[in-house]
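Troubleshooting log. The previous structure file for this entry was overwritten by mistake, so regenerating from the original sequence record. Sequence copied from the archived sheet and checked twice against the printout by T.R.
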Amino acid sequence: MAKKKDGMNKSQAIRDVLAANPQKPVKEIVKDLASQGVKVTPNLVYFIKGKLKGGKKRKKRIARVAMHAVNASANGKAKKTDAIAMIRAVKELAEMAGGYDELKKLIDALAG
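Regenerated output below.
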């Protein structure tokens, strides 16, 4: 990571400003850092803000998808199929039918 000669890291300077005031507009952050002698672009500020927020949003999105996969609808059927559970169920069904070939024959008989 590139550092200035005096040891100040631009990204860390942006994080410090955002820690003090997370709602501060990007233009003001750029202006404040310029007055401190740290030259940053608005793109870098947007990037750092996104990195700070990104982890939280991603965790929420993953949790939401997991909850939808687990929750059942009013009729008791799953809204989204859990692929691993489905694979295990098919494997058990194949064992009950006498193997995958026998299961395929049963499926073909039901389809035709």
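Residues 2 and 9 are 7 Å apart (CA to CA). Archived copy saved in two places this time.
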